């Protein structure tokens, strides 16, 4: 029967929403288009959260064979609080310990894959794992299985990282800007270097960890990117050159647009902190393309003083907004003191601001016709979600590769205008007001250009994922290679 010939894929995202969400979308795509059996591996709390999501997928398409498997995890020996299994609500100082602790999963992961082999009497077709879990290559090699990296970040940012890491240690320089070694046309400013690179001296713990990670990633069987050729062609080519292996850009991998307007989408990642219907009604009460959506993603926040200036600037702009509020940096809970006095009441009274404390139904908001702009930290998923809905972005990158995403989209793509950088960056009420007004002003040349670019990108993204588009062609090529490969040439 069909069941007995299905090939099995093991998928392993890093423990962060920005990674798990696109892995789920990719699993769906591979299960439906490739007819594969998929096992998604993660730690117990993440698996528990995914149960209802996967149950719903099974209801939507009976034929989808997606399973969940958990690995025991305890990060306390790395200084993590008990039950920490995600970057969500994790202070930045604990990002490295979580990454280090995730290496403990190597043995249990190998055991789990061996159990699958024993049960099915044959090897899984491949292991598709996260850019942060390079060590899974060693497991794959020991068992004789191809390992594919699924990069949930863009090709531009990944290329910059890999180039910088290939040239460690970085010499001290007094200059505020410098060129990326292998991509000299990219000039970075000091403020765009994430902390990880700023401290890199070849022997610091980040570097040691990434050294192994990078070499594993570069020598894997191939790489799948959540991006599309039209958006990042040159950087995908760069990645092809440095790996010498296939690179498949199959994105943007998002739920079908037809399902976006339903409440189901309200709990992508986490369950929404607001009632989806209430949120939709609020959006319905505003004119087309008139609402600014504000979010800094699943793991980043801004400082208290930045939060105040942003609020004052929003109020002064008189633009309607939906704001997914997270506790400011250094706090664990949001209090009304963090916002200007009476702000929340005024915004509610004049129907200008819809505040969400906690997890927002982001894709549902972005896909609503009233949404006309996104003030974003430029996490890659947020970027893809925004441009695929034709929504231009006000950039405020906070950490990691967000600086590069913002730079790509501002300088090379033209869909971002940057407002601020990081949690120490200066943000002034007047500047917020000016940029927000510019984005929504029907007569401002820059605003018009940003909106036009967003619509162009929406069209390009739609073409990429259409049946003859570049992303689907790459996806089919990947599926074919997997089905007809004779083992694992060129790995490790
Ligand atoms: N997200 C959401 N609601 C929130 C915060 C985040 O739905 O309140 C989703 C968002 O749509 C995206 C992912 O979580 O799919 C965040 O990924 P991204 O790469 O944008 O940022 P990260 O959280 O990894 O920094």
UniProtKB/TrEMBL annotation:
Keywords: Glycosyltransferase, Transferase. It is an enzyme of class 2 (transferase). Coiled coil: none annotated. It comes from the Eukaryota. PROSITE patterns: UDPGT. Gene3D superfamilies: Glycogen Phosphorylase B. One of its GO terms (molecular function) is UDP-glucosyltransferase activity. Pfam families: Glyco_transf_N (PF26168), UDPGT (PF00201). Residues 8-255 form the Glycosyltransferase N-terminal domain. Its EC number is 2.4.1.-. InterPro entries: Glyco_transf_N, UDP_glucos_trans, UDP_glycos_trans_CS. Belongs to the UDP-glycosyltransferase family. This is Glycosyltransferase. It comes from Ginkgo biloba. The gene is UGT7.
């Amino acid at each position: 029967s069909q069941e007995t010939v299905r090939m099995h894929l093991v998928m392993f995202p890093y423990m962060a929403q920005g990674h798990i969400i696109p892995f789920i979308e990719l699993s769906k795509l591979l299960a439906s288009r490739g007819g594969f059996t998929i096992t998604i591996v993660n730690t117990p709390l993440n698996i528990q959260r995914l149960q209802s999501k996967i149950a719903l997928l099974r209801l939507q398409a009976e034929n989808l064979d997606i399973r969940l498997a958990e690995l025991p995890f305890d990060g306390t020996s790395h200084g993590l609080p008990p039950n920490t299994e995600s970057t969500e609500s994790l202070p930045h100082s604990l990002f490295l310990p979580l990454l280090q602790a995730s290496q403990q999963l190597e043995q249990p992961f190998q055991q789990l894959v061996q159990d699958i082999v024993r049960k099915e009497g044959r090897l899984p077709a491949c292991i598709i794992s996260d850019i942060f879990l390079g060590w899974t290559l060693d497991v794959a090699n020991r068992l004789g299985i191809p390992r594919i990296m699924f990069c949930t970040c863009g090709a531009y940012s990944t290329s910059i990282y890999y180039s910088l890491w290939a040239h460690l240690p970085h010499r001290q320089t007094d200059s505020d800007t410098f060129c990326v070694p292998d991509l000299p046309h990219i000039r970075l400013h000091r403020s765009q270097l994430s902390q990880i690179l700023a401290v890199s001296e070849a022997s610091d713990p980040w570097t040691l960890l990434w050294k192994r990670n990078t070499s594993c990633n570069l020598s894997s069987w191939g790489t799948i990117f959540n991006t599309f050729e039209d958006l990042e062609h040159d950087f995908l080519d760069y990645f092809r050159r440095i790996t010498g292996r296939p690179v498949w850009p199959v994105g943007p991998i998002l739920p079908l647009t037809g399902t976006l307007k339903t409440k189901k989408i309200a709990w992508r990642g986490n369950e929404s902190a607001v009632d989806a219907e209430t949120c939709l009604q609020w959006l319905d009460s505003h004119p087309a393309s008139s609402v600014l959506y504000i979010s800094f993603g699943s793991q980043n926040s801004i400082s208290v003083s930045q939060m105040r200036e942003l609020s004052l600037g929003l109020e002064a702009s008189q633009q309607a907004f939906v704001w997914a509020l997270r506790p400011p940096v250094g706090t664990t809970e949001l209090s009304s003191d963090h916002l200007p006095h009476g702000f929340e009441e005024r915004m509610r009274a004049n129907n200008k601001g819809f505040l969400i404390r906690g997890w927002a139904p982001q894709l549902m908001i972005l896909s609503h016709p009233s949404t006309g702009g996104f003030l974003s930290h430029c996490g890659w998923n947020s970027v893809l979600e925004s441009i695929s809905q034709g929504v231009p972005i006000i950039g405020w990158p906070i950490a990691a590769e967000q600086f590069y995403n913002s730079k790509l989209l501002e300088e090379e793509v033209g869909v971002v205008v940057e407002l601020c950088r990081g949690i120490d960056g200066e943000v002034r009420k007047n500047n917020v007001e000016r940029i927000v007004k510019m984005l929504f002003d029907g007569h401002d040349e820059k605003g018009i250009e940003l909106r036009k670019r967003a619509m162009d990108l929406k069209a390009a993204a739609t073409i990429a994922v259409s049946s003859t588009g570049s992303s689907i062609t790459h996806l089919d090529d990947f599926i074919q290679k997997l089905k007809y490969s004779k083992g694992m040439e060129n790995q490790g």
